[in-house]
Design goal:
Elements (H helix, E strand, L loop, with lengths): L1 H23 L2 E6 L2 E2 L3 E4 L4 E3 L1 H13 L2 E6 L5 H6 L5 E7 L2 H4 L2 E3 L4 E3 L1 E6 L16 E5 L3 H9 L4 E5 L2 H9 L5 E5 H9 L6 E3 L9 E8 L3 H16 L2 H8 L4
Parallel strand pairs: 1-5, 1-6, 10-11, 10-12
Antiparallel strand pairs: 2-3, 3-4, 6-14, 7-14, 8-14, 9-12, 9-13
Helix pairs in contact: 2-8, 2-9
Length: 251
């Protein structure tokens, strides 16, 4: 009887250990966009989402003791998908803002940058600020902090929203907008890869919306946030994050 009880106790302990291992290896669904090169984008060869923030999320997961499954999600749908539990994390070029922090929790910063300005290649004006384009029709990607800022300023003839940066570039080349605003690293990378030869990134422009790119979790999940932050600290400490940034030409 004592042997049976001891065996049962050992079995329970073993089962508890297995449950603990399973929990620590939980797979979290990570929302990423298909149009944010080089942060997140659809690799047509592999039909998978790739990019700097995908690599970062995978490195953080490895360091933090969990696994991730990357899911393609439209930029504007990222936060709604997170709050309705369709995904568990966001890993994309979504800058931290006070308005967003009322709805979701941001991790420690993974990367920081500001907005960039694009105009037609035949426009050689050395723009330095948004005010230089007062009275013009401008555009930005829907759901970004940039379109919010453009609308808030109230100095433009019209502010148009676009589902993707490629759509914005198309209308820019067609003369439907005078200028476009978007994530500077994304613009620089895409244009360096020949995305649109009729568009140029204005080097003289000085960004006003500097922000942090982080991993994003739901409100009310402090344990997950801590796990993610521990992973970020680890990849910063061992140089993994620096190598990822260099890989995607963001340094």
């Amino acid at each position: 009887m004592r042997l049976s009880l001891r065996s049962l106790t050992c079995a329970c302990a073993l089962f508890a250990g297995l449950v603990s291992v399973t929990a620590s290896a939980e797979t979290l669904r990570v929302g990423a966009t298909a149009t944010g090169v080089p942060f997140t984008f659809l690799d047509v060869k592999t039909q998978s989402i790739q990019g700097m923030m995908v690599d970062a999320a995978q490195a953080v997961a490895k360091a933090g003791g969990f696994e991730v499954e990357i899911q393609q999600t439209n930029f504007a749908a990222l936060i709604p998908s997170l709050t309705t539990k369709k995904i568990d994390l966001i890993s994309a070029a979504m800058l931290r803002t006070p308005a967003r922090e009322k709805v979701v929790q941001y991790s420690e910063p993974v990367f920081s940058y500001g907005e960039g300005l694009i105009v037609r290649a035949d426009d050689d004006t050395a723009y330095t600020s948004m005010e230089d384009l007062a009275g013009e029709v401008v555009g930005a990607q829907v759901g970004t902090v940039f379109i919010d800022e453009l609308n808030k300023r109230g100095i433009f003839k019209e502010v148009r929203s676009y589902d993707s940066i490629s759509d914005l570039m198309r209308d820019l080349t067609l003369g439907r907008v005078k200028a476009g605003f978007a994530d500077r690293p994304i613009l620089a990378y895409q244009l360096s890869q020949g995305a649109n030869e009729r568009v140029r990134l204005v080097q003289s422009y000085q960004p006003v919306i500097m922000g942090d790119v982080c991993l994003i979790v739901r409100k009310g999940e402090p344990a997950l946030l801590e796990q993610v932050n521990q992973g970020i600290a680890a990849i910063k400490a061992d140089g993994s994050l620096e190598k990822i940034i260099e890989k995607w030409q963001l340094d």
